[in-house]
Specification:
about 900 residues; mainly beta; Tick-borne Encephalitis virus Glycoprotein, domain 1; 9-stranded mixed beta sheet; 9-stranded antiparallel beta sheet; 5 helices
Length: about 900
């Protein structure tokens, strides 16, 4: 903060500035300094180029914490140095100085503050964004886990933001919403609102609300996020009550609107809007400049009444000015010429002058009024908080401001309805009445709602369906926050291949040294007769498991590939049925075992079940001969399968050609409360024709397909899309698996080794800063003034030099100021010669990719050694066993190198939280 104490006809002495000014303290982790004593970062945050999106979120959280340490609250005090003397003429001797006007003129400039905060909404593919995420519950009424029901009181923790407190709503009836609180997104934190003039304080609770869904879009060939409703809400409460902010701070009886104008100007001393009450609005400080409650008869203290309007303003320059003084902005002077009073009505007469003092125009402004003045094509808003008409010219003053911006929030209208900068955001206001009677009207501002329900025109992509990177500004002007759709949190490292390869003509031979045992304990040679299918995983080790036999006894088969013998297996002494599966005994074994086909075979595939191997919860591949599906499907093995996919879809009717085999897998598509949800993918194999036409293509005579080439059959886990449908190449399942390709002889998937999340991130806009404010006030001893939330108070003035007199009738005398100066000191008495605020660009490049980290001395490396090359380098000499140690926060090199990492993405975020909790300010 820049503080400039000026002597204008006065000497400042003992003027204490109680300000959140720019004294800085270093930020440390262990022996490593992150932010220096001047508030500038000395460390950089490194994130892997191939890291998950959540690692980037963790890096942003650390960067935000470093930025948050730049400001500390200190007291600065103005002191006089030296003594003023009076010097007479040559024959007059020493003179005498009179003490007269004990006032101090103080100017203070408050810089804009950089906003901070990041929050990620994690959803499942094909799920709704509602009160409880990841649950795969539909938006159906009566489910209190998924919705915030309307009705009931507005004071409960989980009250619907649009309730009117008595069973209805104040203009919006949405109930299926996800709430983002101040605990999640720091700019939304609950604030204490202070009205210094009235000696009152209030609480301000802020929330963001989102409604929407995610799903795979055929037309966009990707998983899209589709928000359908956004709202930003503020709820005010008083000390010990839930009414809000009163229109008038001192009521007449119980009427808190009694100071509003009734034919004369308002009693500004009692109006909240004249007290420069600062609230948070979309991450910035705004002053309530006007309040107009609805003229509605109110009979209940618990009901919220819609209507009215308020205005919020940001000061560019403000101050208490006397007649002849001015407020200066853009080389223009807004000068107070005089004040006039006619009964109860007073007004300030003003002149607008250019830089050379030339008159541009004259005007006048009333108490509590905002005057819009168009000067040289630019709009200036001059506001009069209070006017002191006085009895003498010297006693006239005005408390005025030039607003950098003013927003009107009117119930039922677009935000700032007189302008077209926020067309897509609507406003709702809710008011309460304290002590209502038969003639009373609402007199407390309870809630502010800014919402959007037309997302397509707000989205940067021009569509309600948002693709990765598309964002929604909140609001359109000023844009301080954005809701961005980041797509899926899966990287290529989170997927592995799964391939079904059809060999049409060439048999596969297993030698007698590697084949399964026969009944006499002798290994036998086997031939898998073409056509057959080889199933292969890109993961190594025991990817697939099967309870089979090696010819003598039951055993566990496990490998990353196996064979489906769709035409049977001929061994030296044994013959296996068509549909049997052959797999090696273990990843390192050369020996085969088998499962003879007598019913659908289910191969365990725990990778796609997150450890589970169940058809209903995921983690299985099922292989079956379609002929097992008889007319009575409900009792057949195929019936078990068709229950999973829907009997109607797979019913074999007259004239239809049935496939010989199908291969289907079930994968986990839920977590926690949706843990038992699975989606399922099927392809079918037609071996009815000649070997050259064996293929993954099955259809009936009329051309309607059960399963066909270029398609797979998919059963949705829901709830956004339900049932069974044919899906094309490129389709992404609700787990996150990609259906890569299908042709006559090959089907390929890129299966998700972990459950995917579709992510939305609420962030502050790039370089979002509040506007700088400059205020000037002429204050007497004991008076105080608030400039954009910074309180300035003159606690003591020791002297002000006035007229000088000397002996002798014709003697001359002048005050000698040469030995007097003013200085600013801190609480210790040390002089403060400058107040330094790091520029916003001081934080540019705070987060870098690992590829750009060469030469950086002090760094915090976020993410594990598999996704961050800097972490890998730091841990070379002391590798981490991630199977036993899930998260690490470690000062690898004292004073310069820190690793913050986890085994999985969620573990890294947990490590980030541990790191942030451990940093200390010195």
């Amino acid at each position: 903060m820049k503080v400039n104490l000026k002597k204008i006809g006065a000497i400042v002495a003992g003027a204490t500035i109680l300000a959140s000014t720019a004294a800085f303290g270093a930020l440390w982790y262990g022996n490593t300094k992150l932010v220096d004593d001047n508030g500038a970062p000395v460390a950089k945050v490194v994130v892997g180029e191939k890291a998950a999106a959540s690692d980037g979120v963790g890096a942003a959280l650390i960067a935000s914490r470093m930025m948050a340490s730049a400001y500390k609250s200190v007291n600065l005090k103005g002191q006089v140095v030296g003594t003023a003397t009076c010097k007479g003429g040559e024959t007059s001797g020493a003179g005498t100085c009179a003490i007269s006007d004990e006032k101090a003129t103080i100017e203070i400039t408050v810089p804009g503050a950089v906003a901070e905060g990041t929050y990620t909404i994690n959803t499942l593919i094909g799920d709704y964004i509602n009160r409880r995420l990841l649950d795969r519950k539909a938006n159906t009424g009566g489910d209190t886990d998924a919705e915030y029901p309307l009705g009931g009181t507005d004071v409960s923790e989980n009250a619907n933001p649009f309730t009117n407190g008595v069973g209805g709503n104040i203009g919006v009836s949405e109930t299926f919403l996800y709430r983002i609180t101040g605990d999640m997104f720091s700019p939304l934190k609950t604030e204490t609102i202070t009205d210094a003039d009235a000696g009152k304080s209030y609480k301000e609770q802020q929330n963001m609300w989102v409604k929407g869904k995610t799903y795979y879009s055929d037309s966009d060939n990707t998983v899209v996020g589709e928000p359908s409703f956004l709202a930003y809400t503020i709820k005010f409460s008083g000390t010990g009550d839930d009414f809000g902010i009163p229109v008038c701070t001192t009521p007449t009886g119980q009427d808190y609107s009694s100071c509003l104008p009734t034919g004369s100007e308002p009693n500004s001393d009692r109006l909240t809007s004249s007290h420069k009450v600062k609230i948070k609005f979309l991450g910035e400080d705004w002053i309530i400049s006007e309040m107009s409650p609805p003229n509605t008869n109110s009979t209940s203290e618990t009901e919220i009444y819609p209507g009215g309007y308020i205005k919020l303003a940001k000061e560019a320059v403000a101050g208490l000015i006397n007649v002849g003084e001015s407020l200066t902005v853009d080389n223009l002077k807004f000068q107070l010429d005089d004040l006039e009073a006619h009964g109860d009505i007073s007004a300030a007469l003003i002149s607008i002058l250019d830089a050379n003092g030339n008159l541009i125009k004259k005007d006048k402004i009333g108490k509590g009024e905002t005057k819009e003045l168009n000067i040289n094509g630019k709009l200036y808003r001059l506001h009069a908080y209070k006017l002191g008409p006085g009895y003498t010219f010297a006693a006239k003053w005005a408390d005025m401001a030039i607003f950098a911006k003013e927003l009107k929030l009117e119930d039922g209208q677009q935000l700032d309805p007189d302008y077209d900068t926020n067309k897509k955001y609507q406003v709702l206001l809710g008011w309460k009445d304290k002590g209502p009677d038969s003639t009373s009207t609402p007199d407390f501002l309870r809630t502010i709602v800014v919402y959007a329900d037309d997302i397509s025109e707000l989205s940067s992509g021009g569509d309600q369906k948002m693709e990765k990177g598309d964002y929604i500004p909140i609001v359109q002007d000023p844009v301080n926050w954005k809701l961005t759709y980041n797509g899926l949190d899966l990287t290529s490292a989170d997927r592995s291949s799964l391939t079904y390869s059809l060999e049409r003509t060439t048999d596969y031979t297993i030698s007698s040294t590697k084949g399964p045992y026969d009944s006499s304990g002798v290994r036998q040679a086997c031939t898998i007769t073409a056509p057959y299918v080889k199933v292969t995983s890109g993961k190594s080790g025991s990817t697939f498991e099967l309870d089979g036999t090696d010819g003598q006894a039951n055993t566990t088969l496990s490998n990353n590939e196996f064979y489906i013998a769709t035409s049977g297996v001929s061994c030296d002494t044994d013959t296996l049925a068509a549909g049997s599966v052959m797999m090696k005994l273990s990843p390192t074994s050369q020996y085969f075992g088998y499962k003879n086909y007598t019913e659908p075979i289910r191969v365990k595939f725990s990778t796609i079940g997150d450890g589970d191997t169940s058809w209903t919860t995921g983690g299985l591949i099922e292989i079956a001969n379609y002929q097992n599906a008889t007319v009575d499907e409900s009792t057949s093995d195929m019936g078990n399968y068709s229950v999973g996919f829907g009997n109607d879809t797979l019913t074999i009717g007259s004239g239809e050609i049935q496939p010989d085999f199908y291969i289907a897998f079930s994968e986990k598509a839920g977590v926690d409360t949706s843990n038992n949800y699975a989606d399922k993918v099927l392809v079918a194999l037609d071996l009815a024709n000649t070997s050259s036409t064996f293929n993954f293509d099955t259809k009936n005579a009329s051309g309607s397909y059960i399963s066909k080439k270029d398609y797979a059959l998919y059963k949705y886990a829901g709830p956004v899309t339900t049932g069974v449908n044919s899906v094309e190449e490129g389709f992404i399942t609700e787990r996150g698996t990609i259906f890569s390709s299908i042709d006559d002889t090959s089907v390929k998937f890129s299966v998700a080794n972990k459950l995917a999340r579709a992510q939305f991130t609420l962030t502050t806009a790039t370089a979002a800063t509040s506007t700088e404010s400059t205020c000037k006030a002429t204050l007497a001893e004991g008076q105080e003034y608030v400039c954009s939330g910074v309180k300035v108070k003159v606690t003591e003035i020791k002297e002000t030099v006035g007229a000088c007199t000397a002996g002798g009738a014709s003697a001359t005398c002048t005050p000698d100021m040469s030995g007097v100066s003013a200085k600013v000191v801190d609480d210790t008495g040390a002089e403060v010669t400058k107040a330094y605020v790091p520029a916003a660009n001081a934080y540019k490049g705070l987060v870098v990719l690992d590829r750009d980290a060469a030469g950086i001395n002090t760094l915090i490396s976020v993410g594990g050694d598999k996704v961050n090359t800097v972490t890998a380098s730091l841990l070379e000499t002391a590798p981490i066993d991630w199977t036993t140690e899930k998260k690490v926060v470690k000062e690898v090199v004292q004073g310069s190198k820190i690793v913050v990492a986890g085994a999985e993405a969620e573990d890294t975020l947990a490590a980030v939280n541990d790191f942030i909790a451990a940093v200390k300010e010195a």
